[in-house]
Amino acid sequence: MTPTNSSSSQCTINSMSNLFNYEIPEGLYQVPDHLLDLRPDNDVDHDLLHPRPITDEKNVWFFWHSGFTQMHTYGQRTVRAYHRRFSKLGWVIRVVDCEPESPLHIGRFLDFHDPGTFPKAFREGTIGGDYAAQHYSDLVRWPLLLRHGGVYADVGMIQIGDLDRLWNETIGNPESPYEVISYDKSLSNYFLASNRNNALFEHCHRLLLALWGADGGKTSTEGMHADPLLKGVPLMGSDTMTFTENGRVYSPDEVKYMLTDYIIQGQATKMVLGLVDDEDGWDGPKYCREHVYAIDFLVGSQLINELTSWNGPEQFRLMSLPLPKEEEEETADQKKAKEIIVNCLTRSFGFKLATGLILRVYGDTLSSLWRKHVGSDIVPGTYAHWLRHATANWNQKNIPPPLEFEVTEPIKRGPLLREA
Questions:
Q1: Looking at the record's lineage, which domain of life comes first (predicted)?
Q2: Predicted pLDDT at 17
Q3: What is the DSSP letter of 382?
Q4: What is the extent of the structural domain holding 52?
């Protein structure tokens, strides 16, 4: 399991699909070269910056406020890997932004000035708070899917499984009942997929716009957890979650309010999933059971966290280790790192890298440490590089099974935009 040495100090994960002799775990296979884009990064970047016109729904959407060229390098590698694996299967990868002169400005894909598409603060560029960039991103994903269809993924969402096959067997198959793909029964917003004009996402977006439009128009999500339109939706977090920052201890309730405001889009989704509105014929629980392909959240996208007790520095340390050479005996740490890689590659559909509010609660994550230590995710011969190589060149033989939705009581009965 020894990687081949490279003389290039700028070695990338994609110079040749068979450049490294990394072990391919059971259940994966090497994608044939003719189905991969193995060109140099500069050529791939040209395609990402000048994507083909939209002709169908096989789009993978990303958002980075200042554009792809200003993205952290480890994020750029994630985006390139999508292109390398799926562009020859008909997918077009698009990193939209808010740069006025950019060919990928959000206004080239959506009506930037439409109040039915974006709230006032988005249109006027006045979203504030510590997590403004995340909220701009939250507000583009449903409109993009509603208008154009496809997949919306966070830049921190590394793809492992066969996205093309899952799409073709579900949303892309007219005979399939499935209309939405995501993680977890509450639909994790870092990975959403649908055709155009999806009814679930249309309801979700209308509710989110109403939350942002309250009191003449919000400029941040602070306090949105208490909006009457969300009455009955449980707050995020737990009764034991707390953290200390600058000498101040945040109570579990404070953490709940903070988390819920931060992921307010998730609260809107939960309300719609639990809503029965006879006036417009919407039955959220029934829709979930019949039309949502939900992948297990923890195994499907958070497995490294489960295997390391959500310890970001430990993840970074293990991923930065070199694999043992042929004459070397595997150490306990190398064995643990291999266990993480093999489990993630064989059991997970994706690999979610987290930043944002989680840094305040848990401290550094693998993502924040890759950001601080530029290039640490692609040092040849390390476990991080093994992961990067795999996600750009290999595929899983099977697709993940969907979770089963139970019959549940609705959270709310009545109109979406009327208080219960």
A1: Eukaryota
A2: 46
A3: B
A4: 28-407
